[in-house]
Design brief:
Shape: globular
CATH superfamily: Vaccinia Virus protein VP39
Number of domains: 1
Structural class: alpha/beta
Radius of gyration: 18 Å
CATH topology: Rossmann fold
Oligomer: single chain
Strand content: 25-35%
Helix content: 25-40%
CATH architecture: 3-Layer(aba) Sandwich
Strand order of the largest sheet: 3-2-1-4-5-7-6
Distance between the termini: 19 Å
Order of helices and strands: EHEEHHEHHEEEEEEHHH
CATH class: Alpha Beta
C-alpha cells in the first residue's frame, strides 16, 4: 500500500506529480478550483483543513505545503505591494502539531527555516527556477546548476529562451546572450508538465524537484516504520 501525502495549497499539481512518481498516493487541497489537478482533489481552505479534526495524522503519512508566495516576490516588493498574505509561520506551526513529516516550499526570500534550494538546471530541468524547501527531516540536494548555457525562464504570461549568441561578445569580452519569446509548449516540455495552461505553468513546481525530495521522504517514513 502506497504512503499517502496531503498536498496543501496544491495549485495545478506540479509538486504532486513529483511525489506521485516517487511512490506516494497524493491528495490535493486548494481554496481555488483546480480542474486540471491530476489526482484526488478537494476544494477547501488549506489551513482550515489542518485545524479541522479530520484525522489527518491517521489518514496521511506526510504533508507538503506551498503557501502563497506573492508576499516574497521581488516584483511585488519593488512596487511596494503589501496586500498579500504571509502564511508561512502559521502553516509551519500547524504542520508541527500534526507530528507528521512535512515539507514547506516557497520562493527565494521567503522566511523558511534551514531551507535547501533546488535549481532546475541541477535536476535535469532546463528552466532557471529556484525554489526553497524546508522540512523536518534531512534533505540532500545537488548544488545549483551551471547558468552559463542556454535555458528558459517561465514567469507571468511569458516563456523566454535565453541563448548565447555565437561570435558575439560584450564590450568587456564576455559572451553576449539574447532572449526571445517562445511558446508555452516549450515551457511545458522543459518543465515536464503537459497538463497545465500558461498561468498554471508560471506558478508550478517542476515535478523533478519533489520527486527528488519524495524519494528521501519515503526513506524517512520507512526508516521510522522499521524502527
Amino acid at each position: 500500500m502506497k504512503p499517502r501525502l496531503l498536498d496543501l495549497f496544491c495549485g495545478a499539481g506540479g509538486a504532486a506529480m513529483g511525489y506521485h512518481r516517487a511512490g506516494f498516493e497524493v491528495v490535493g487541497v486548494d481554496i481555488k478550483a483546480q480542474p486540471r489537478y491530476p489526482f484526488e482533489f478537494h476544494q477547501a481552505d488549506a489551513l482550515a483543513t489542518l485545524t479541522a479534526d479530520i484525522g489527518i495524522s491517521r489518514d496521511f503519512d506526510a504533508i507538503h505545503a506551498s503557501p502563497p508566495c506573492q508576499a516574497y516576490l521581488v516584483a511585488n516588493n519593488i512596487h511596494g505591494r503589501t496586500d498579500h498574505p504571509d502564511l508561512i509561520a502559521e502553516t509551519r506551526e500547524l504542520l508541527q502539531e500534526t507530528g507528521l513529516p512535512y515539507v514547506i516550499e516557497n520562493v527565494p526570500g521567503a522566511p523558511l527555516e534551514n531551507a535547501v534550494t533546488i535549481c532546475g538546471l541541477s535536476v535535469g530541468v532546463n528552466v532557471k527556477r529556484h525554489r526553497l524547501f524546508e522540512a523536518n527531516f534531512p534533505i540532500m540536494v545537488p548544488p545549483c546548476g551551471d547558468h552559463s548555457g542556454d535555458w528558459l525562464l517561465v514567469f507571468g504570461h511569458t516563456v523566454l529562451e535565453r541563448s548565447k549568441q555565437i561570435d558575439r561578445n560584450t564590450p568587456s569580452g564576455g559572451p553576449r546572450f539574447r532572449r526571445k519569446h517562445v511558446g508555452t509548449d516549450r515551457g511545458r516540455e522543459a518543465m515536464g508538465i503537459d497538463w497545465m495552461n500558461r498561468d498554471e505553468l508560471s506558478e508550478a513546481i517542476p515535478p523533478p524537484y519533489t520527486e527528488l525530495i519524495g524519494y528521501q521522504l519515503l526513506q524517512h517514513i520507512r526508516a521510522g516504520v522499521a524502527a
